[in-house]
Amino acid sequence: MRDQLAFAGVRFAYGDQLILDNFDLNVAKGEFVSLIGPSGIGKSTLFQLIAGLLQPQKGEILLGGEPMANRLGQVGYMPQRDLLMPWRTIVENAALPLEIQGISKKQAHERVRSELPKYGLEEWADAYPTQLSGGMRQRVSFLRALLSSSNIMLLDEPFSSLDGITRMDMQEWLMAKWQETGSTMLMITHDIDEAILLADRVVVLTGKPITKPIELSVSINRPRSLVSRNHSGFLALREEIWDLLRSHRSQPSLGREA
Ligand SMILES: Nc1ncnc2c1ncn2[C@@H]1O[C@H](COP(=O)(O)OP(=O)(O)OP(=O)(O)O)[C@@H](O)[C@H]1O
Q: In what residue span(s) does the ABC transporter domain sit (predicted)?
């Protein structure tokens, strides 16, 4: 089967700061991939390249096997903070990508209203974002991203602003949504447990520039739940990822002890 997303020999630099060099990454249709790496390594840059907000200076980014220079509108993006417009109701916020696609406001609103029960939000259709909890707002943000494009969803630390209990609820909720929608998902996270729990594969980004990402398969049976964290395979993977991150953090070039 063709990859849903492929980086082939990609180079990208901001001025003389090289972020990616000869970078390859392949993501299969319907796969869930977590991306983890130190702050400032280039994770958000990677997402901006996928979304088409930035272009590679060398190499190609392929969507569905095709090189696609204009990738805007081909991917759904869920940011760290929900970025809902406070003056728009929940329906009006979630319907925005459909209206941008040229669907009439009436049809767009009907479509969103039909989706809201799946998000536990049917009673909040006409509420404003400030009336909702953080977890509820992130569910609206997810729905809005999914309505932009369900082919590839980019989740940029989607739960980092939530409290610990809501975050765990949302992790289980996202696992269920991923299975229901069959979308390809890439998620940036700084939380090793979150990276493992949700993913088929964890990609550890290290090095400046990033050349070869370290890819680790997560072979823990699905459906998973928070209890899966006690699985021996989970604990071993957590150790492995932590060792990788720690060893790169303590490189002399990063200003730590030799
Ligand atoms: N528009 C820009 N112009 C110049 N440099 C930039 C720009 N955006 C990011 N950078 C630099 O590129 C590097 C990678 O940034 P990026 O935001 O992709 O990292 P990140 O891994 O997502 O970091 P974090 O985990 O802190 O969000 C950083 O050194 C950052 O300062």
A: 5-232
The 3-state DSSP class for residue 34 equals strand
CB-based burial label for 39 (10 Å; 0-12, 13-18, 19+): exposed
Q: Residue whose CA is closest, atom 10 of ligand 1?
A: 14
* 122 Cα–ligand 1 center, Å: 38
Residue nearest to atom 11 of ligand 1 (CA): 40
Whole-number Cα distances in Å, 20 to 44, 152, 201: 12, 21, 20
Listed in order, the ranges of the chain carrying CATH 3.40.50.300 are 3-74+151-254
Answer yes or no: CATH 3.40.50.300 is held by domain 3-74+151-254: yes
Residue 117: Cβ within 10 Å count: 11
Determine which residue's CA is closest to atom 1 belonging to ligand 1: 14
91 CA → ligand 1 middle, Å = 33
17 exposure class (CB count in 10 Å sphere: 0-12, 13-18, 19+): exposed
d(CA 254, CA 244): 15
43 alpha carbon to ligand 1 midpoint, in Å?
8
Place of tokens 């998620």: 187
The Å distance, Cα 189 to ligand 1 centre, comes to: 15
Ligand 1 interacting residues, C-beta cut-off 6 A = 14, 19, 37, 39-45
pLDDT confidence bin for 252, thresholds 50/70/90: very low
Put simply, whether the predicted model's pTM sits higher than 0.80 gets the answer: yes
User: Element (H or E) spanning 5, and its range?
Assistant: strand 3-14
Residue 44 alpha carbon to ligand 1 centre in Å: 7
ipTM score over 0.95, yes or no? yes
Inform me whether the pLDDT recorded for 250 exceeds 70. no
